[in-house]
Fold this protein.
Amino acid sequence: MKLVFATNNQNKVNEVQSLVPNHITILSLAAIGCEEDIPETQPTIEGNAIQKAQYVKEKYGYDCFADDTGLEVHALNNEPGVFSARYAGPQRNAEDNMNKLLDNLKDKEDRSAHFKTVVALILKGEQHTFTGICNGTIIKEKKGKKGFGYDPIFMADGFTETFAEISLEDKNRVGHRGKAVTQLIEFLNKNR
């Protein structure tokens, strides 16, 4: 089975590829010649994932899946949410995003947050969605060099290290994307 993963984020491709069984081949956008920016104009995480998957199916004809992820911080009315990648502006800079978030939280006692990933799959003309949530806390200063995005300031419940300090295997096991992709894989295995 060949599926396109509708992302240009190689970190996401690597995370997902490490979870997918051998009978599923993941094609990147580059592999199908998709070099344009896929629109993400929906007001929700679910909407963006669906929009991206539909775009690839309509323009390129491949069965595909897309994800969208947001970090939702409870004391900030679930900001940055759907705007997580561009929280500090259109440059999509992770350092700027983390700095803005830490600044917005400096006077808040409640630092609880969760990552939410929605994977939208279009397979054989049908659409399916899978949601993964990882609860945790935003720490006060960045720690760790692994991972990407907000990983250096997010500590999952039950851990004493940030997502940027733990192994990829641990992150996939407890993380939002790993949970959503696990549901996707279980679905694909049942629907070969």
Q: What stands out?
A: Helices lie at 10-17, 45-60, 94-104, 168-174, 176-190. The chain is about 30% helix and 25% strand.
